[in-house]
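I hope you will forgive my troubling you with a question about protein structure. The full record is reproduced below for your convenience:

——
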Amino acid sequence: MKKIYSITLLLSLLFLYPSCKEELPDNNCCTCTAPFTETGAGTMSFDLNGTTWSPCNTNEKNGPSPGLSTQRNPINGYLHIKSQKFINGGEETVYIILLHPKKGLIQHAKQGIWELTQGKIALELFANNPNIQSNDFYETDENLPFHLEITKLDTINKIISGIFTCSLQNTGSSKPDTVQIQNGRFDTRYL
């Protein structure tokens, strides 16, 4: 009888073990594709060189997902959307910068021209751990592919949504290289 009780206890513990594993919440998935929405859901995702990127926080156990932040300056028509990923002791940040945003296709930002509707996308990769210390900054270039489209701009409910695809040039390193962004989408509220 004692032997059966021991085997039953052992089997019970084996079945319970997988359910005790700590998992990240669904809203903290670093490789999940955000659904295409236009509701101000606070989502962003894209494929970076073929791997899906979305905001998350794996540096803190059960840390909150960083989501999106949006800053707006109504005086000069500037809208700045920022999304972050905290992973492997480092940080990755994506910026979508819009001047005088409107619904439709947005042309690439031209240096020194501030009165037109235009946009720019940038990516900052910062590694901070004992084995790697680097800071690479990528941004769109007029000579590289660029597609940014505002699919919804609701000025009453303060919602902006869009899609983007582009190539980014590394401007923060002595060795220039490019990264590809495909299937980009965002949906957020602004103040």
About this structure: The chain has one domain: 25-189.
